[in-house]
Amino acid sequence: MAKMFLFDALRAATDEEMSRDATVCVLGEDVGHYGGSYKVTKDLHNKYGDLRILDTPIAENSFTGLAIGAAMTGLRPIVEGMNISFLLLAFNQISNNAGMLRYTSGGNFSIPIVIRGPGGVGKQLGAEHSQRLESYFQAIPGLKIVACSTPYNAKGLLKAAIRDNNPVVFFEHVLLYNLQEEVPDTDYILPLDKVEIVRSGKDITILTYSRMRHHVVQAVEALLKEGYDPEVIDLISLKPLDMVSIKESIQKTHKVLIVEECMKTGGIAAELIARINEECFDDLDSAPIRLSSQDIPTPYNGILEQATIIHPNQIIAAVKNMVGSKIS
What we know:
By secondary structure, the chain is an alpha/beta fold.
């Protein structure tokens, strides 16, 4: 085991897969000599050369299209968006090409591409750099969507995504890059379509992902002291949703709270509630509740910015309201 920052875990995953498979390459702005804005590709160009770690112009639509073409013809490209919101410039390529070409070609082409980068509400990065695009990409047929939350799962999930023969949009949170934990030295991969049971419990199911996992864990630590017993599930896969595991949890707890940093309207929680009501309605004792970010552009002002997202005290209050008081 070695203690790693999350960005180092992503770098290690990229390095190991590039060593294992000569078709793996990286494209993006400043990924080469500079090592990436968050150092996920630091020093890799020294090892693999400028053609496998390719610095691109500031033209997301062009280099994403280039990567999709490369994937169609035998390579396994990793596209780094300097900020995930910049990939809106490549939305056409991601939706009409990456998501559809395997289907529209009648299976003649596969698109083994990973599109990754930092998103989420940071610390006063402004509205344009604080976006959560998971709900944007959720509606695109043909994509897999994954959100990492710890150094351990970041490494295992990225390695799995690189090996997958389908396009994977891989979300990282800008405020989790400096999160640190022990990561195995051995080669390992994690499933792209399964939840992670962070904590087993019987009172209520809390579904979350990305940075909100850590807010939920902080809230649960306080709730445990008051006798509450929540089950915490990190979704990991935002598309497809692991409804088998989610349903098993709901059958045990009969209550669901969803905590996300995505916006409330059309967010991941909105899709989850629809699926839960369709598939788990008879197992519910009360309506599912969602705690989501405000439906506004993220303010630059630090106090206002914090007011737009969910915090542990709100999670604690929601659990108490749904479960009721605990008798000591």
